[in-house]
UniProtKB/TrEMBL annotation, chain A:
<keyword id="KW-0812">Transmembrane</keyword>
<dbReference type="Pfam" id="PF10066">
    <property type="entry name" value="DUF2304"/>
</dbReference>
<protein>
    <recommendedName>
        <fullName>DUF2304 domain-containing protein</fullName>
    </recommendedName>
</protein>
<dbReference type="InterPro" id="IPR019277">
    <property type="entry name" value="DUF2304"/>
</dbReference>
<feature type="transmembrane region" description="Helical">
    <location>
        <begin position="6"/>
        <end position="24"/>
    </location>
</feature>
<feature type="transmembrane region" description="Helical">
    <location>
        <begin position="69"/>
        <end position="87"/>
    </location>
</feature>
<keyword id="KW-0472">Membrane</keyword>
<keyword id="KW-1133">Transmembrane helix</keyword>
<feature type="transmembrane region" description="Helical">
    <location>
        <begin position="36"/>
        <end position="57"/>
    </location>
</feature>
From TrEMBL, chain B:
<dbReference type="InterPro" id="IPR029044">
    <property type="entry name" value="Nucleotide-diphossugar_trans"/>
</dbReference>
<dbReference type="Pfam" id="PF00535">
    <property type="entry name" value="Glycos_transf_2"/>
</dbReference>
<dbReference type="InterPro" id="IPR050256">
    <property type="entry name" value="Glycosyltransferase_2"/>
</dbReference>
<keyword id="KW-0808">Transferase</keyword>
<feature type="domain" description="Glycosyltransferase 2-like">
    <location>
        <begin position="13"/>
        <end position="168"/>
    </location>
</feature>
<dbReference type="InterPro" id="IPR001173">
    <property type="entry name" value="Glyco_trans_2-like"/>
</dbReference>
<protein>
    <submittedName>
        <fullName>Glycosyltransferase involved in cell wall biosynthesis</fullName>
    </submittedName>
</protein>
<dbReference type="GO" id="GO:0016740">
    <property type="term" value="F:transferase activity"/>
</dbReference>
<comment type="similarity">
    <text>Belongs to the glycosyltransferase 2 family.</text>
</comment>
Length: 120, 254
């Protein structure tokens, strides 16, 4: 890798990491996701600063092209994340439904109380 | 209202409860016995048992959350209720009977000179003890938060807390809902907003139901999460400029 490409990669991953930290600071990211993305951000930074790590690790587990190892890990990770998000989304849908039901029930009960008061 | 036990304040005792039907009734009755002038608000955090009915039967006001929001979420609901109904102080009290209602008086009395009063478990009284990673975590937290608050705090993760008029609207808006946020982060927010935090010694008692966890693995996770929660609290930006007049409903006429 040429020096300029290396610097470009490092600057890129530093920007990613800073972006995550800034989102955290603005409270746009809750704690449970924050840990996940911070780990990912740091991992990316470490791998760009020391590209030799990836080559060494792919040799250890017997993968010929280091980028293939990276693609494999990235795809597995992204599939995991999207499954997790689907799960969270389903839970949120269920919670909103329950809230809507509760509001409707409260509105009915309130109406009935008001009517009782008007009649009595 | 002249009220001796609450020091002349309109005090709301907030009891967050999640599946506590065995303990919550006795806890509520005990609070009323110790503080006849206070109001008790049980926040039923989406329980699947009869917590709400038991609490209501014991004479408490009950806020039934339709979904489980965690201790922080339950407390925020309590603070919002306190602000809407113009209470002078809110005191958090555990449903499992760990906190002694007789000591609520000490907390309330101390509100004369502070905005938040923590019932601390290590400040001389009581025989509450922890070991290992959990202890280190608590030491570090106590050190950092003492510096921030400008006064000595020894037990920053205590759930036994009294909140005064100045901090109530702040917490009603910003009370953290994440794990450990309701203790660590809430203190950081309060300090940032210029609230005065002090502590008084408190005894912890055995829980009425359920058992505390003590495995070393869990303690290590606790250490990590507490550290992370503290770090997060310190770097986060909070909008602490709370509206002076938060909406207050004077008893809705229904």
């Amino acid at each position: 890798m040429s020096l300029s490409a290396h610097i470009f990669a490092i600057v890129g991953s530093v920007i990613v990491l800073l972006g995550i930290i800034e989102m955290l600071r603005r409270r746009q990211l809750s704690e449970k996701y924050a840990v996940l993305w911070l780990v990912v951000g740091v991992l990316i930074l470490v791998l760009t600063v020391f590209p030799g790590l990836l080559t060494w690790f792919s040799q250890v587990i017997g993968i010929q092209v280091p980028t293939n190892l990276m693609f494999f890990v990235a795809i597995v990770f992204l599939v995991g994340v999207s499954i997790h998000q689907s799960w969270e989304l389903s839970r949120l849908e269920d919670e909103t439904r329950r809230l809507a039901e509760d509001v409707a029930i409260l509105r009915l009960e309130m109406d009935e109380k008001l009517k009782q008061k008007a009649d009595g | 209202m002249s009220s001796e036990s609450t020091g002349g304040r309109r005090a709301l005792i907030v009891v967050p409860a999640w599946n506590e039907e065995e303990a919550v009734g006795d806890t509520v009755r005990e609070i009323f016995a110790a503080l006849p002038e206070a109001d008790v608000l049980v926040v039923d955090d989406g329980s699947s048992d009869r917590t709400a009915q038991v609490a209501r039967a014991a004479g408490a006001k009950v806020l039934e959350l339709p979904i489980n929001l965690g201790v922080g979420g339950a407390m925020r609901a309590g603070f919002r209720y306190a602000v809407r109904h113009d209470y002078d102080a809110a005191v958090q009290c555990d449903a499992d009977g760990q906190h002694n209602p007789l000591e609520v008086k000490d907390l309330l009395a101390k509100l004369d000179e502070a905005d938040i009063v923590i019932g601390a478990r290590f400040a001389g009284e009581g025989d509450y003890q922890v070991r290992g990673p959990r202890k280190w975590a608590m030491k570090v937290l106590a050190f950092v938060l003492s510096r921030l608050a400008g006064t000595k705090l020894t037990d920053t993760t205590s759930g036994f807390k009294a909140t005064g008029r100045r901090a109530l609207p702040l917490f009603a808006e910003n009370y953290p809902v994440e794990y450990l946020g309701d203790t660590i982060e809430s203190l950081v927010i309060a300090c940032r907003a210029g609230c005065k935090v002090v502590q008084v010694p408190a005894h912890m008692r055995e829980r009425r139901a359920g058992t505390p966890s003590h495995s070393p693995w869990k303690a290590s996770i606790y250490l990590f999460r507490a550290g992370f929660a503290l770090l997060l609290a310190l770097i986060r930006r909070w909008n602490v400029s709370v509206k002076a007049a938060t909406p207050v409903v004077s008893e809705v006429s229904v």
